[in-house]
Amino acid sequence: GAVVSQHPSRVICKSGTSVKIECRSLDFQATTMFWYRQFPKQSLMLMATSNEGSKATYEQGVEKDKFLINHASLTLSTLTVTSAHPEDSSFYICSARSQLYNSPLHFGNGTRLTVT
Amino acid sequence: AQSVTQPDIHITVSEGASLELRCNYSYGATPYLFWYVQSPGQGLQLLLKYFSGDTLVQGIKGFEAEFKRSQSSFNLRKPSVHWSDAAEYFCAVGVPAGSGNTGKLIFGQGTTLQVKP
What we know:
The structure holds two protein chains of two kinds.
Chain A: E1 4-7, E2 10-13, E3 19-25, E4 32-38, E5 44-51, E6 57-58, E7 67-73, E8 76-81, E9 90-97, E10 106-107, E11 111-115
Parallel strand pairs in A: 2-11
Antiparallel strand pairs in A: 1-3, 3-8, 4-5, 4-9, 5-6, 7-8, 9-10, 9-11
Chain B: E1 3-5, E2 10-14, E3 19-21, E4 24-26, E5 32-38, E6 44-50, E7 56-58, E8 64-68, E9 73-78, E10 87-96, E11 102-107, E12 111-116
Parallel strand pairs in B: 2-12
Antiparallel strand pairs in B: 1-4, 3-9, 5-6, 5-10, 7-8, 8-9, 10-11, 10-12
């Protein structure tokens, strides 16, 4: 079964509103989580890396004030898209792993965000 | 800088035919290499990975990949394709993060596989 649960799977919101996406590890302690963004028919681009209890590390070009990442517990990371605009419409995918040696990287099933 | 190139954007093969998806990478050290498959609107499923050791890696669903350092390649192969293999395939380089773990992944552009009956 799925070891990383991402919620919601789909969300539609109006421009200017904020949307929160959750990524939960179900049966392991996710010390590190990654957030990716995927445009239609394109590859996945890393947005940020978050380690439990510390600030996320954002990739170049990603607005940290727009894409707020919180990783306050070992099983939950959230991505909040603030003041969403239509160009933020995309497929967002999280992945997570523990800090154990050679721990596998698990992906969530993604969240399709549509901003109208 | 690290990068991954999948030269073929779209490939069509007949069911039962063999398959090879190409992947070339650029990385300054020994890379961690991955192949993932993605069905429409879904997350990623790991097919196989290479960290070290035997350069021919066996994965799930009958897939295998061969790491060739001299060619900076990690091509994915399957001897006989099934209709259910139609999907998007991504090659990725993983940046080591210590303790044998992978940090961020750098993905190729993806190859769409279409299977003809």
